């Protein structure tokens, strides 16, 4: 039979509460430091915005072709205008290309200033996220190593023992006891909901170290995927032109036959109301 353990109330006051308070305070500071380190987005030139918006319009037109709100005349006109512009290179930021000019080689991501700026922004966020975690973990390991700080009020299986009793090698201890180091990890992931409630959903206090998109190279890849300078936009436009031609065969106007549908719906509703009226007359 396993002997019962009794915790000193001072452990709650001098270990449990300080760890929780420090982690909440560090999360709030991390959020505001991240906001201070963020650089203002640079204003893009008008030709670059025009190039991006042309591709976006084509994608929206293609994706809504199966149930398009545009009448056939408008849809065909817009699709034809975009296809012609993509072929002639009208929407390219550098203007139409010379057919006899050699093909441009894609820019290296490491030599692209915009990609490097994205990587630097990601590295700043990673430093703000990782350095406080290392300091807090070292602080807990040095001052509170081996402390049992609380007991969970519900039973658990032994599979939770490595997660809840990290830093304590006692195979006979009840699984419901939580060590100080495990309490740190539980707060690290469990306080995300509290930070979202205090700071809002888009905050920098929550732990996002496991998110690949939050890494510096992940952010650089996202920047390159969203029409970065390293891509050959002429090839992308030609591919989008082919997609528009395929979408033309799938086009269907959402308001096609709307008059007939409205009349049929009105006739069904009229028939139901007539049947209800006849039923009331027969009952009376």
Quick rundown:
The chain is mainly alpha-helical. It is built from ten helices and two strands, in the order H-H-H-H-E-H-E-H-H-H-H-H.
Q: Secondary-structure map with pairings?
A:
Blueprint: H1 9-37, H2 46-63, H3 72-88, H4 113-143, E1 148-151, H5 161-164, E2 177-179, H6 180-190, H7 192-199, H8 216-225, H9 233-250, H10 258-283
Antiparallel strand pairs: 1-2
Helix pairs in contact: 1-4, 1-6, 2-9, 3-9, 4-8
Description:
Residues 212-228 have low confidence and may be disordered. The protein is built from ten helices and two strands; from the N terminus they run ααααβαβααααα. With 284 residues, it is mainly α. The termini are far apart. Helix content is 61%, strand content 2%. A two-stranded antiparallel ribbon has the order 1-2. The longest helix has 31 residues, at 113-143.
From the structure above, extract its key features.
10 helices; mainly alpha; 284 residues; two-stranded antiparallel ribbon
Please state the overall shape, judged from the principal axes of the Cα atoms: elongated
The strand order across the widest sheet is 1-2
The share of residues in extended strands comes to: under 5%
| Uncertain residue ranges | 212-228
Radius of gyration computed on alpha carbons? 31 Å
Question: What's the main sheet like?
Answer: 2 strands, antiparallel
Number of beta-strand segments:
2
Average residue pLDDT: 80
How many individual helices? Answer: 10
Q: Share of helix among residues?
A: 55-70%
Derived from helix and strand composition plus strand pairing, the structural class reads mainly alpha
The ordered H/E elements are: HHHHEHEHHHHH
Question: What gap, in angstroms, lies between the N and C termini?
Answer: 80 Å
